[in-house]
From TrEMBL:
Membrane-crossing segments per the record: none
Limits of the Saccharopine dehydrogenase NADP binding domain: 5-156
Protein's name in the database: Saccharopine dehydrogenase
Domain Saccharopine dehydrogenase-like C-terminal: 160-406
Domain of life of the organism encoding this protein: Bacteria
Pfam family, one: Sacchrp_dh_C
Length: 419
């Protein structure tokens, strides 16, 4: 029986909260704490008569380590689930250490202010040393390894779908299907249609930063960086059909590259429609994706934050999105001396998700694994002192939980490979 403090109450958090409330045997009590407390109260109002889980709420600015430490100490949860933004990863980890509580998140750290000179100096060195230029990377959180180890606490990083489930798929493939994995292609297909000319399926600022960055992949332990959207393939996805997909940099490549060094090549592809790409390019060209504040009529505004205010709230896309997602990994390698290839994937239907929890499938496919990751930690199944990604534990209980909690997966032998 566990008490979970959930930080954030946006699209992903709302699914994680709903799922914890379906799983009252594990989550006896939750506290929803976020910047805008009215959202937490609305979730409590919506769910409290449908669940045995006791729901509490609190207002918190997770950038304020002192206030957050006090909240954690007062509430005394079994663990903290961070489903706020990647900007808060380090402050929430600091507060967890100060209060002596396990930590779980869904995305690795990136700074809100990429013009901060102290961060820039580290970033510039990393770009030069490692060869990829994304603003987010694991180094900041892996640097907490000793602190969590010494405190006897677990930090589980990146338990969404990708990263998260995709890395569990990799651990599962390694455990049950291969003696040696040679290549991993992670394919993220969203065949959903929300009817808007342009909207993002999760936080616009985080999403647009990720997608407009140069792509990169890992080959023989080295990063290879390419201009944004310059590698394109077509793939025929089960449940969706043929879609164009583009090679992107993605955070699980970094963790898999470190933890499975025997894998010769790791790539990540995501599908995009032409309308999305044209809008994004145009917004980028006019400076609307910039994170550098400008002065407008005496007021300082950050262009991408202003754009976020104009775009539909991802949490509001649920009722209008139809179609399916298909996210998974294609593995090639050797088993018993013979070449083998398998594809492990999940197909998720936007409208089914909406009927169940009131959210579209992108929030659903992230929020369910967030709950499952938290469950793995609070039940002790994935509890070890230190900082871990999801490929570092026994994948079997997590894979079982995916089937039980709404993200069933399948394994297909000899899939069509991506060239
Ligand atoms: P949203 O923008 O919808 O929600 C973010 C929530 O965090 C909001 O409730 C916001 O409060 C709150 N928040 C922001 N800053 C603070 C702060 N300083 N203190 C307290 N609360 C704060 O984002 P999403 O739900 O779309 O995304 C949540 C996380 O999930 C992100 O880290 C994202 O990167 C990650 N993600 C991971 C995926 C994966 O597969 N691994 C896929 C998709 C997302 P307010 O309501 O006041 O704005």
């Amino acid at each position: 029986m566990a008490k979970l403090l959930i930080i954030g109450c946006g699209g992903v958090a709302q699914v994680a909260i709903s799922k914890c409330c379906q799983n009252s045997d594990v989550f006896e009590e939750i506290m929803i704490a976020s910047r805008t407390v009215s959202k937490c109260e609305a979730m409590k109002e919506k769910l409290q008569n449908t669940t045995k889980t006791v729901i509490k709420t609190a207002q918190i600015d997770a950038d304020d380590v002192e206030a957050l430490t006090k909240l954690i100490k007062d509430y005394a949860p079994t663990a903290v689930l961070n489903v706020a933004l990647p900007y808060q990863d380090l402050t929430i980890m600091d507060a967890c250490l100060a209060a002596g509580v396990d930590y779980i998140d869904t995305a690795n750290y990136e700074p809100e202010d990429i013009d901060d000179p102290a961060w820039r100096a580290v970033y510039d060195k990393r770009c030069k040393d490692l060869g990829f230029s994304a603003y987010f990377d694991y180094s900041w959180q892996w640097a907490y390894e000793d602190k969590f180890k010494e405190a006897g606490l677990t930090a589980l990083l990146g338990t969404g779908f990708d990263p998260g489930v995709t890395s569990v798929f990799a651990a599962y493939a390694k455990k049950h299907y291969f003696d040696e994995i040679h290549t991993i292609d992670i394919l993220d297909c969203n065949g959903g249609d929300h009817g808007y000319p342009f909207a993002t399926n999760f936080n616009p600022e985080i999403n647009l930063r990720e997608v407009s960055a140069p792509g990169s992949y890992m080959e023989n332990g080295k990063w290879i960086e390419i201009p944004a959207m310059s590698i394109k393939r077509e793939y025929d996805f089960d449940g969706v059909g043929k879609k164009d997909m583009y090679l992107l940099h993605h955070e699980e490549i970094e963790a898999l590259g470190r933890n499975m060094p025997e894998v010769k090549r790791i790539r990540f592809f995501m599908t995009f429609g032409q309308s999305y790409l044209t809008h994004m390019k145009c917004l980028e060209n006019v400076g609307m994706l910039s994170t550098t504040p400008i002065n407008y009529n005496g007021q300082e505004i950050v262009p991408i934050q202003f754009l976020k205010a104009l775009l539909p709230d991802p949490a509001s896309l649920g009722p209008r999105t139809v179609g399916k997602t298909n996210i998974g990994c294609i593995f090639t390698g050797i088993k018993d001396g013979k070449e083998r290839s398998i594809y492990i994937y999940n197909v998720c239907d936007h409208q089914e998700c909406y009927k169940e929890v009131g959210s579209q499938a992108i929030s659903y496919t992230t929020g369910v694994p967030a709950m499952i990751g938290a469950m793995m930690v609070v039940t002790g199944q994935w509890k070890q002192p230190g900082v871990f990604t999801t490929d570092e534990f026994d994948p079997d209980p997590y894979m079982e939980a995916l089937n039980k909690w709404g993200l069933p997966w399948q394994v297909v032998e000899n899939p069509v490979l991506v060239d």
